[in-house]
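agent: user wants the full assembly modeled, not chains individually. Plan: 1) parse entity lines 2) check alphabet per entity 3) run joint structure prediction 4) return tokens. Steps 1-2 passed, two entities, 655 residues total. Proceeding.
--- entities ---
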Amino acid sequence: MQNAYAQALWQLIEGGMEPEKAVHAIHTQLEAQGRTELMPRIARAFERLAARERTRSTMTLTIAHKGDEAHARKEALAALEKLNIPALRSLGEEGETHIDASLIGGWRLEGQGHLIDASYKKHLLAIYQAATT
Amino acid sequence: MDPSIVEKIVREIEGYTPTHDHQHVGRVTAVGDGVVAIDGLSKAVMSEVIVFEEGKGKKLEDSMHQTSTLLGLILNLEEDGVRASILGDTARVTEGMTVKSTGKVLMVPSGEELLGRVVNALGEPIDGKGPFKNPTMMPVERQASGVIDRKHVSVPLQTGIKAIDAMIPIGRGQRELLIGDRSTGKTTIAIDTIINQKNGPEDTRPICIYVAIGQKESKTARIMQQLRDAGALEYTIIVDASASAPATLQYLAPFTGAAIGEYFMDAGKDVLVIYDDLSKQATAYRQLSLLLRRPPGREAYPGDIFYLHSRLLERACRLSEEKGGGSLTALPIIETLEGDISAYIPTNVISITDGQIFLMTDLFNKGVRPAIDVGLSVSRVGGDAQTKAMKSVAGKLKLELAQFRELEAFMQFAQDLDKATAERIASGQRMVEVLKQKNGEPLPFEKQVAILYAATHAFFADVAVKEVTAVEAQFIDYLDGQHAKTLAEIKETGLVSEDSQKSLGRAMEEFKLAHPELFATK
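--- prediction returned ---
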């Protein structure tokens, strides 16, 4: 139930309604039905929804060492260009950067349902698997 | 380090072209009871295989030591994500884990090298004999052959069980249901059928696939040993999804068996697949469907439970000559509760199959084994596949036995019976004895014909009911020793010629003369 209300709230705000007005509209509706006790649960569901949407729209570049960022970002953007996904390209430029030493080298771009893995770890694993099977 | 290994690694490095893999991915948002909710994977398709990325954040060394890839199977496509079942250990999946799409439907290995092996529902060997070297991958879900590609069922599949081969014959490409309460001998009939294929010629011997669904591992191990002892394991493949396996694997196992069988069928061979049992598969599918939050229907089964079994059993068929002439015979097993064959799953499967063999607890407890209820058992297409020899000796057997069962019930109340009724009852009692058979001892077709010929020609009329089984065994030995030529002729021609009839008549007379003591104890 709370998920449906949170979804409705999200859609109202996405549709251009001011957040205060949207919350007030939902509250009035709940009050008329005598279900105002749902409000805290709706708030928590809304938080979860917002976190999910944030993850969905974020593009994360992961590199092994801090010094690799500029080069990795350039390579990642070139790869995105090659794949011809414009929406991703803009996100790739502005996206977050994480450091993960286990990648050894190279980079990994993940977000919006896409993953491009150009890490050394992935390449080394591919060589290992080819040599051992 | 071995120089050859170094050389191989160098070769691999030199020949390696680094590529930027682009994949569609999602993220695990919830996990529990073998089912995961995934956010993303917008390009996913139904029944697609997904890969859980376990190596993220792990050191290279740890990733190298990871022995297997954890797979999942997409079962629900929803508005804002997908739901999938985990094909392995649920504990390995964590919230937030990245899931990669593969764009492929589930495939299992098949081929000659699977013969004599035990595999799980994913086709992975579990008998400790090592991986398969060069298998052919077959899709687990495949559209059943169409009308044009099929041929009439006309070749018999000998079970080696007199009562079945005589009265409820099964043809190659047929779907015959084995149904009955627990411990009534359903699996025994299936295993005897596998063992009996050894009695047939090697070139037309069907490849047998035994699919154990929700069974105890000890039972499957016992069956494997029994098949090995009988020399039947060499043409058999066991697919095991034991009671401890996740519900997804129990649901998939019959489809895996069918997929493995289809490889041989496509190659023009005959295949026999035993699904032991589909009630447990239905229960596993119900569990999975409820976890996937699909709406429950009758007995909490999902709405597509009929389709689950119909699409599986429709894959059994006999292909036309243009398609290679192979066949896939299905022997599904259903366990009933208190003999209730009108329950939901039994009625579904009865309506899908081409007949059923109904086993009764009462008969089993009376010592009639196999405990087949002739009145309720039927084979809708097998009659056309019965050999002329068997038809000629077993033509009226079913009717006579059904009449005997009625008279038997009447006999309990009547004091004085007229002579004709008494004779019919006596003959019926002897016929019931003749049709009794020990488990693990299937009888070759020609011997069945000889015994039934003798039984329908009043050979056992003067034998005490208790002695019929013993006399029958002695008579078979006698035929084996003295009239092997007649048996060979019946086997070869599939007919009981006039010469064979004379020879069998002579054998009966000779045997009676040689053993007068057996025929004076009525």
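agent: reporting back. Residues 22-104 of chain B form a domain with the Elongation Factor Tu (Ef-tu); domain 3 fold (CATH 2.40.30.20). The interface with chain A takes residues 5, 8-9, 12-13, 16, 18, 20-27, 29, 39-43, 55, 57-60, 63-64, 98, 100 of chain B (CB under 8 Å).
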